[in-house]
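BUG: 3D viewer hangs when loading the predicted structure for this chain

Environment: internal workstation, default settings.
Expected: structure renders.
Actual: progress bar stalls at 90%.

Input used:
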Amino acid sequence: MNTHPYLRAYLAGAFVPTLVLPLALTVFIVARIVLRVPVPIEQVMIFPMAVVPPLFGLWNMLWVATHAQTHLTIGVQGALLPFLLLPAGAFTASCLGILQLGATGITWFHACHVPYAFIAAGFLFGLAVYYLVWKYIVGFLNGVLGIA
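Structure tokens produced before the viewer hung:
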């Protein structure tokens, strides 16, 4: 039975961020209220909570549709997703005044300066995390749903 493979791919892809992002939002809100972190970090979570789950689902649908032609493993396909998310998030944050790009780094909310070296290291760490999540969790779900 191979009915609706793209719907199953979308659901398998959207599963992980749908579970993880509300937990991350809870941690950020507790840090803001209990630890009195002066930066409104819960506002930073709005973009990921709105965009990432559907994008994960669409990205998994793209993998299902193109896997026969590209032969990319699901981990590599997942590791390519931050190359779309980082520029889109940075562009949106800079347009909303949340993020300012400087000569040596970025500044969030006019309060937190992060050097570009830390951003590059965080991006590489994010690539590794995305690779592992896609390879082991989304790949497993695709297998369970019979679309891998």
